[in-house]
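Section 5: illustrative case.
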């Protein structure tokens, strides 16, 4: 949560906060008075206790002042981040957290790192016009003849990039993706600028504005992988200025960063030249650079767009190749897709295999590096993960080493909304939104709808939740798959059809795709009869053990019936009667991925 939001919440409880931070102070009229932020009795520090200004403080003798987070920092001698943490504890607010995958990163060694060579220093100051104080603040160094940009966080060397003059680059491998420049950011800063390169960050600093840089330049996706690891650290800043190049990749990065860090607090900076270092070399004044920050704008709300913005998109609609997540079976690829921005319902009568099918789908996606998040209220997390691991192994009795390697290899690809029993719909949505933004999740699964805190017959509540999930999928450009029960029809011998989805009408209207998972019970009975009495299986009974009957597919209108063969020993669903189960992640690959 941003520092200013925390300060606002504190000001609603200002009486308690001042008594905690300044216990020796006392009330004088509408203010709490103390001697200073050190807490002694006196008059010079005053905190407003009422009205619009509640929580605003100033110390007449030191000239300090600000809001209650600032007071917390001053009284407790804490950095902004630590003060926010303590204040959140005080307020009893738990921040949404999914701990980042514990991926092991390399740390660069400091071996061979020496003071900045004079040749490097001269290039920085004379050619690039970077101030010497800036070079010191960012603690640039030299190493084996290379100019070294150290990525420091709390004094720890997390990563490093190198430049050989004039223009060769390298970086230490396997290091954590993180921002450059924390060493130059004041502990008390309430806003930061983010640039597209280290020299641009240092150029802004030379102008007097300490700045961070992304590690891998513009572009989207993996290029902005640092967001996952820096997300918490950036949470306290009220304003984040994005000063990236105004070319295609720069704008793509701007959009992705603003979406994920919060459109409301990100401001896009436009400069008179290509980037901040160019401005510095061209002699743009500090006043003009400050004006660029002042004039920085939020990105327009995603809902507001000019028709001309769609030029490329309109043309690509003419030539569009339908795109989306593909199911594990190749024969479905032209028939059914889980499209970004869409919602699907996977419905079926009890015991017809909905959970097993969706688990196979997630297993296939996650092992192909599609980030997935599953809220399974049907089973405890270790249980559904165990089932999925068996499907991934594709063998009935995998070894312990294989299962451990599979689970390790799923790090960074599969997340669980880990609650036992019923979960609250609102909380699921909050966590999904967080997971989508932080980890770029492409497939979110709810298994199942009735276990999201609704009474069995609360169809209005379920309908509203499905509507919220559909809005979420559309706005975030991700896919949400919802498992839902079907009413028992007279006999399970025939698929039940769309109207049997519980709470139907409303729910199926709202989503883009409806799939009925139907298990071929007549075939199972006929097989038993064949074994017991030798009665041949009648031709009219299809030979597949499960059918995915697509009852609605808004994008294409295709409503195929997809036959699958259930393999009991691995619980995999196979695309043909002659197919054999196969590993979705062979042991050797699982070991290298882990
Ligand atoms: N075609 C099939 N033939 C035999 N067994 C199957 C078939 N499909 C699924 N199963 C098995 O049936 C059991 C029930 O499956 P699953 O839990 O996935 O059903 P579900 O539709 O999600 O049930 P519920 O509505 O109770 O949650 C599991 O043990 C699963 O492995």
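Designed sequence:
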């Amino acid at each position: 949560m941003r520092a200013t939001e925390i300060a606002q919440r504190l000001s609603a409880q200002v009486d308690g906060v001042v008594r905690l931070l300044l216990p020796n102070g006392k009330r004088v009229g509408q203010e709490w008075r103390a001697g200073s932020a050190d807490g002694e009795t006196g008059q010079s520090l005053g905190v407003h206790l009422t009205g619009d200004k509640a929580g605003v403080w100033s110390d007449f003798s030191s000239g300090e002042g600000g809001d209650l987070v600032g007071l917390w920092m001053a009284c407790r001698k804490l950095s902004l981040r630590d003060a926010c943490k303590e204040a959140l504890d005080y307020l009893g607010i738990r921040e949404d957290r999914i701990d980042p995958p514990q991926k092991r990163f390399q740390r660069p060694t400091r071996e061979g790192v020496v003071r900045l060579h004079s040749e490097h220093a001269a290039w920085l100051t004379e050619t690039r016009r970077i101030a010497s104080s800036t070079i010191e603040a960012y603690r640039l160094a030299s190493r084996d003849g290379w100019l070294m940009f150290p990525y420091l966080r709390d004094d720890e060397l997390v990563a490093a990039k190198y430049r050989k003059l004039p223009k060769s680059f390298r970086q230490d491998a396997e290091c954590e993706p993180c921002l450059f420049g924390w060493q130059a950011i004041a502990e008390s800063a309430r806003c930061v600028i983010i640039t597209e390169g280290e020299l641009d960050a240092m150029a802004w600093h030379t102008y007097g504005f300490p700045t961070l840089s992304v590690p891998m330049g513009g572009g989207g996706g993996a290029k902005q992988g640092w967001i996952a690891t820096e997300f918490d650290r950036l949470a306290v800043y009220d304003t984040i200025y994005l000063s990236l190049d105004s070319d295609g990749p720069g704008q793509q990065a701007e959009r992705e960063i603003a979406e994920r860090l919060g459109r409301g607090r990100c401001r896009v900076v436009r400069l008179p030249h290509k980037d901040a270092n160019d401005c510095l070399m061209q002699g743009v004044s500090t006043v003009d650079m400050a004006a660029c920050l002042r004039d920085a704008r939020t990105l327009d709300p995603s809902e507001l767009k000019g028709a001309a913005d769609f030029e490329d998109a309109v043309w690509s609609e003419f030539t569009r190749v339908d795109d989306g997540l593909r199911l594990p079976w190749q024969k479905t690829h032209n028939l059914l897709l889980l499209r970004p921005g869409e919602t699907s319902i996977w419905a079926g009568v009890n015991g017809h295999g909905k959970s097993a099918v969706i688990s196979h789908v997630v297993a296939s996606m996650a092992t192909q590096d599609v980030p997935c998040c599953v809220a399974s209220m049907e089973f405890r997390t270790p249980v559904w993960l165990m089932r999925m691991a068996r499907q991934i192994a594709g063998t009935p009795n995998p070894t312990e080493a294989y299962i451990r390697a599979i689970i390790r290899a799923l790090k960074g690809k599969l997340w669980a909304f880990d609650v036992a029993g019923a979960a609250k719909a609102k909380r699921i949505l909050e966590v999904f939104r967080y997971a989508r933004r932080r980890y770029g999740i492409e497939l979110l699964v709810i298994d199942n709808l009735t276990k999201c805190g609704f009474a069995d017959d609360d169809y209005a509540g379920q309908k509203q939740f499905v509507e919220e999930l559909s809005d979420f999928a559309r706005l975030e450009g991700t896919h949400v798959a919802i498992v839902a029960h079907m009413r028992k029809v007279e006999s399970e011998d025939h698929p039940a059809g769309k109207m049997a989805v519980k709470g139907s009408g409303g729910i199926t209207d709202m989503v883009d795709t409806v799939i009925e998972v139907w298990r071929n019970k007549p075939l199972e009975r006929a097989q038993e009869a064949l074994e017991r009495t030798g009665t041949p299986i009648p031709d009219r009974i299809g030979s597949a053990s499960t059918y995915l009957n697509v009852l609605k597919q808004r994008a294409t209108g295709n409503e195929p019936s997809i036959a699958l063969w259930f393999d009991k020993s691995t619980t995999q669903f196979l695309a043909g009667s002659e197919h054999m189960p196969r590993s979705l992640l062979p042991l050797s690959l699982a070991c290298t991925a882990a």
